[in-house]
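Internal tracking record. Fields below are filled automatically when a chain is submitted to the structure queue. Please do not edit lines marked as system-generated. If the sequence contains nonstandard residues, flag them in the REMARKS field before resubmitting.
Queue: standard
Priority: normal
Entity type: single polypeptide chain
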Amino acid sequence: MTITRRLGWFFVVFGVWSWVIWPTFLCNIWKDKRSWNHGMTAFFGVHLVLTVVSLALGTVIGVLGIRALLAARRAPAAIPAGELVSR
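SYSTEM-GENERATED OUTPUT FOLLOWS
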């Protein structure tokens, strides 16, 4: 499967976005009074799991994007479809 440069950049941006948004979200949940009651509450636990899964997926998707961009850089330039001639 080939990932286009455009999709590769989308994947990289998605990965960066995940690493910007989810830690901030978790900090806000940490400060919420519903998160702690003589220890961690289920409210906090669920949001912690959401954050960990989202960061893992964001990392994997971001790495796929970086690998796609690197592969596109190494690949020879494609011949436009209109220029293909069958002999």
